[in-house]
Design a protein that fits this description.
The chain has 156 residues and is of the alpha+beta class. Strand 1 and strand 2 form a beta hairpin. Strands 1-2-3 form a 3-stranded antiparallel sheet, with helices on one face. The protein starts with a helix and ends with a helix. Helix 3 runs antiparallel to helix 5. It binds zinc ion (ZN). Zinc ion (ZN) binds next to helix 2.
Length: 156
């Protein structure tokens, strides 16, 4: 019996059953980016509204397994209202927690960063996924999709 693992499972199930920020935003002005994880069949559509340097709104659509959907919900709650820089920091921290060593889309940096569990809050619930490597792409799908959306928002 592990109390923390039970708590983490509860958080993941809660976000799967009651996903936060579910829906769509008008695009444009919002960026609409699709992500797909062929290993599991997960689809995620991220609508992200960036005004100035801030993520003012975010919506999630798509379908997939409980890990992919709860991760997207947790992500949306975590980055909404944050600055783009803060959102990118959170993406980096989350991916460091997931220990994803796949080729980086960003290409900047690459130095190892210490993960501060305090900074992750409920997102720490997803760290149990690391024990199941095949599921890591389920957990990181929405985050990679958000990165693409932020890149497009800043480019355009
Ligand atoms: Zn999945």
């Amino acid at each position: 019996m592990n109390g923390l693992e039970d708590l983490y499972r509860e958080i993941i199930l809660d976000h799967y059953r009651s996903p936060r920020n579910r829906g769509e935003l008008e695009s444009p002005p919002a960026q609409r980016v699709e992500g797909f994880n062929p290993l599991c069949g997960d689809e995620v559509v991220v609508y992200v509204q960036v005004d100035g340097d801030r993520v003012t709104d975010i919506r999630i659509a798509g379908q997939g397994c409980s890990i992919s959907q709860s991760s997207a919900s947790l992500m949306s709650a975590a980055v909404k209202g944050k600055t783009v820089a803060e959102a990118r920091d959170l993406i980096r921290t989350f991916k460091a927690m997931m220990q994803v060593h796949e080729a980086s889309l960003e290409g900047d940096g690459g130095e190892a960063e210490a993960v501060d569990p305090e900074a992750l809050g409920e997102l720490a619930a997803l760290q149990g996924v690391v024990k199941f490597p095949v599921r890591i792409k389920c957990a990181t799908l929405s985050w990679n999709t958000l990165t693409q959306g932020l890149d497009e928002a800043e480019a355009g």
